[in-house]
Design a protein that fits this description.
It comes from Streptomyces plicatus. This protein is α+β, with helices and mostly antiparallel strands and 866 residues long. The chain is built from 35 helices and 25 strands.
């Protein structure tokens, strides 16, 4: 490199950032959003922030496997390293075409994220990243390499180093530094090193081969065997502590053929298609699942309509209540936890906040029920896609070994939305109608975020997962995503459906030339080794709302039209061959009990269900008319008799408040009640031939008489029959839980443009040369800001600003705003009046007005300032 090139080469990360264009700076801030919060004052502060440990760790966690391997190779290379040296560490002496083709992309990615800086002949890994990735005894490197010869011999006596030189066949030197250099030169010389190793006995070479790929440390006794002594004498093993030896990095690299990693992965593993179905079959299956999802959520909310389970003192559902919910929904407990959490994420259920706190539906649930079915599904799907609450961890243990309960705290996993979106994006990259092999999806995710996956071990969520509990969090999230997407109808038969594709904003699939379409789960698709193009997640709520609306539009035609009829059968059942109209479903849900669900729903009429309809204000005539109007078959005679029989007995007994009383025109019925042993707990006594008084309250009396087989009706103080309606319990208005973000949000284009402009202007203000002021050292030429605000008196400040107005020159000022924050700015004064200076501010790229009393001082720019 020539002298001019060396002087032009950046000497720090800040200088490397300074020569970037605005597009490159914006890409850095977009890929590492923590750097823009708050906006750095200049490029020096940006470089400092980019080198902090927390920021570097976050950036490393988001690298794919090959980019991370590239950074690990740079961490074990000389600093700085040339591109050729890096290529040798990645591809080895024999070379690897795939590595050679992929390495430029990896280096460009590391440069973009400011983890690597410098030209190709002087690549430097930022210091913090080197400290994190370089091998050490406390933190072994994934490369399996140990310390260099220089590092391993740092505490060795000069005499011992000279002995090693002699044993290795090298000439002695006058100092340890040159001796270590000579030994390192031997180990990196392929020809001489091969001759040295050939001279070793077989057992010695076997020891080196065992340590070659790591870990590089081994144990020896105070009197090593001859084959170990041969290695120690020649420096092929170096002592690091009493009884511990290490294989020097240079020796290991020679044995490996120059490779830093045993296996490099320059190409992401393909997502394999396990089965194929016709797209129409996938969409129809997904639509059926979507309808079932809506029915399940409605059934859950119906169960909790009058007030759901109690809220635990620590928050969440008890294990017993979750089991009851699972039985009511006829699903396993983990699936019940999913539906409960989904309704909570969508804002449909919440705690009521009462003294006896319980879960109940929110007012938003009533609004949701009035939406068209496709829009109701889209709201659930969007809530699932963006939620950080993770039902899969329910039943696991938290950091304090407490059970994680549904609707309880500590269920948020900030990586969940990213993993869900990425899994669906990988499915979108397969041919239309193709269901993926789950293991290939997990392998792809581990390649894309290896460090993040390896570090995110989460003890929560192991409940119910069996062997999967040992997987990293991202893998478990991916498995849950595949199963939850199928439950929700985002996928059908494992393949991404058209509404699911629209939900993540994926482009429509390109249909190839007409070919015979595979059908059935057994038909295998060819493995697709292409790299799945990334599908960016919607950046704003408006973009996600648009994608959700598109998904609803695609789903709506797939839903069958709601039916206005049922098929009544002689065995006191009614069959609904499809989804029912809202009014019909609501009335039928009161008049009959759901016996089975599926493609067709079966309702069963019982005395209790008919009495429930009568209690809700319906008369027998109303029920007969309703069934005749909505049945495609004649109303069976047994059902007519059942309704009439229950209606005839309904209301014969009347219960009111005395404590409570029972009156009946038929005194024989009252005699029967008094004689029944089951009435002993009600405290009944006869007040008159047709009246009994009770010590129980009216509600308990009603339930007790119904348990005895009677059908009493409640009456008011005026003696009128009360229509017992089940009042729906609602919480006060509640907002849906907000996702817990995984770090700062990605800035939008407007913020990026403003941030880059502010950083550029601040950097200009902090680096522009200025003339020496009274407090500067004279005789040193033009001064630079050095980050210190200029200090001048009020009179001098005013005079300098007024002179700049006349000459049109720019000034460098220090300014303290109303909040007390100090900054330095480049301004071109326009006018001065009333204690204010109006100037074009190069920092803000606009005309601003500044109070003179807030200007700490001014300085003129040097004559050679750009």
């Amino acid at each position: 490199m020539s002298t001019e090139e060396k002087s032009a080469a950046p000497r720090s990360l800040a200088e490397a950032l300074r020569v970037r264009d605005d597009v490159s700076l914006a890409a850095l801030l977009r890929s590492r959003p923590d750097l823009v919060t708050p906006v750095p004052t200049d490029l020096t502060q940006l470089a400092t922030r980019a080198g902090t440990r927390a920021s570097v760790v976050r950036a490393l966690e988001r690298l794919d496997r090959f980019a991370l391997q590239t950074a690990e190779a740079l961490a074990v290379a000389e600093d700085p390293a040339s591109y050729e040296e890096l290529l040798g560490l990645m591809a080895g002496d024999e070379g690897d075409p795939a590595v050679s083709a992929a390495l430029p992309r990896a280096v460009a990615l590391l440069r973009e994220q400011a983890l690597v800086w410098g030209a190709d002949d002087r690549l430097r890994l930022v210091r913090t990243a080197r400290e994190l990735l370089a091998p050490s005894a406390q933190h072994p490197s994934p490369t399996g390499l140990g310390p260099t010869v220089r590092e391993a011999t740092a505490g060795m006596s000069p005499g011992r180093i000279q002995e090693i030189l002699a044993a290795a066949g090298l000439s002695s030197t006058h100092d340890s530094v040159s001796a270590v250099t000579a030994l390192g030169g031997l180990f990196t010389d392929r020809t001489r090193m091969a001759a040295l190793l050939d001279a070793l006995p077989g057992p010695s070479r076997e020891v080196l081969e065992r340590l070659m790929w790591g870990p590089p440390y081994g144990q020896v006794t105070h009197d090593p065997a001859a084959h170990l002594r041969a290695l120690l004498d020649r420096g092929l093993l170096l002592p690091t502590a009493p009884g511990t030896v290490v294989l020097p990095r240079e020796v290991a690299l020679h044995l490996r053929g120059g490779r830093a990693h045993r296996t490099t992965e320059p190409v992401p593993p393909p997502v394999e298609a396990a089965a194929a179905h016709r797209p129409q079959v996938v969409d129809a299956t997904a639509a059926g699942q979507a309808l079932a999802a809506l029915a399940t959520v409605e059934e859950l909310l119906k169960e909790w309509d009058e007030g759901g389970p109690a809220v635990l003192r620590a928050g969440g559902l008890s294990v017993r209540d979750l089991k009851r919910t699972a039985v009511a929904l006829d699903v396993p407990e983990p699936v019940a936890a999913f539906w409960v959490e989904l309704a909570y994420a969508a804002g449909l259920i919440a705690s009521d906040g009462e003294a006896d706190e319980r879960y109940a539906a929110t007012p938003a649930y009533d609004e949701w029920r009035e939406l068209p079915p496709a829009e109701r599904w889209a709201r659930l799907a969007e809530s699932w896609l963006t939620a950080t609450r993770t039902p899969g961890v329910v039943g696991g243990r938290d950091a304090k070994d407490r059970t994680l309960s549904a609707l309880g705290p500590n269920l948020d996993r900030s990586a969940a939305p990213e993993v869900r979106h990425r899994v669906l994006a990988l499915l979108a990259g397969l041919p239309e109608g193709a269901a993926p092999d789950a293991e290939s999806v997990l392998a792809r995710l581990r390649w894309e975020r290896p460090l993040r996956g390896a570090q995110q071990r989460d003890q929560g969520g192991q409940g119910g997962q069996g062997a999967q509990g040992e997987e990293d969090l991202r893998s478990r999230l991916a498995r849950w995503t595949l199963s939850e997407a199928e439950l929700l109808g985002v996928t059908g038969r494992g393949a991404l459906a058209a509404p699911g594709r629209a939900l993540i904003g994926a482009p429509e699939p390109v249909h190839p030339a007409a070919e015979p379409e595979p059908e059935g789960p057994g038909d295998k698709l060819p493995v697709h080794h292409h790299r799945t193009p990334p599908v960016p997640a919607p950046a704003t709520p408006a973009e996600q709302a648009a994608a959700t609306a598109a998904a609803a539009r695609l789903l709506a035609p797939l839903f069958p039209e709601p039916l206005d009829h049922v098929l009544l059968q002689a065995d006191l059942t009614a069959v609904a061959p499809g989804p029912l109209e809202r009014e019909l479903a609501d009335v039928l849900g009161v008049l009959a009990d759901v016996e089975s669900k599926g493609g067709a729903t079966v309702y069963r009429f019982t005395p209790g269900s008919v009495r429930r309809a009568l209690d809700a204000g319906q008369s027998a005539a109303d029920l007969h008319a309703f069934l005749a109007r909505h049945s495609r078959t004649p109303v069976p005679q047994p059902l007519t008799y059942l309704i009439d029989d229950v209606a005839r007995r309904h209301g014969r007994l009347r219960v009111g408040a005395a404590s409570a009383y029972v009156r009946c025109d038929d005194d024989a019925t009252l005699d029967e009640i008094l004689a029944d042993k089951r009435a002993a707990g009600l405290g009944l006594r006869r007040l008159a031939p047709t009246v009994l008084a009770a010590q129980a309250d009216p509600a308990a009396l009603l339930e007790g008489l119904r348990a005895m087989g009677f059908a009493p009706a409640a009456e008011s103080a005026a003696g009128d029959v009360l229509i017992a309606r089940a009042d729906a319990h609602r919480t006060p208005p509640r907002a849906a839980p907000q996702p817990v973000p995984d770090g700062p949000p990605v800035p939008d284009d407007t913020l990026l443009t403003a941030a880059v402009r502010a950083i550029r202007a601040g950097d200009l203000a902090s680096t522009t040369p200025r003339k020496p002021g009274p407090g500067d050292d004279a005789g040193d030429g033009p001064a630079r800001s050095g980050g210190e605000l200029p200090r001048t008196g009020a009179a001098e400040t005013l005079a300098t600003v007024q002179a700049a107005v006349l000459t049109g020159e720019a000034l460098w000022i220090g300014y303290v705003n109303a909040e007390g924050a100090a900054s330095q700015r480049l301004i071109a004064p326009i006018r001065v009046e009333g204690g204010f200076v109006t100037a074009y501010d190069h920092t803000a790229d606009e005309v601003r007005t500044y109070p003179l009393h807030r200007i700490t001082g001014v300085a003129e720019l040097a004559d050679d300032a750009g």
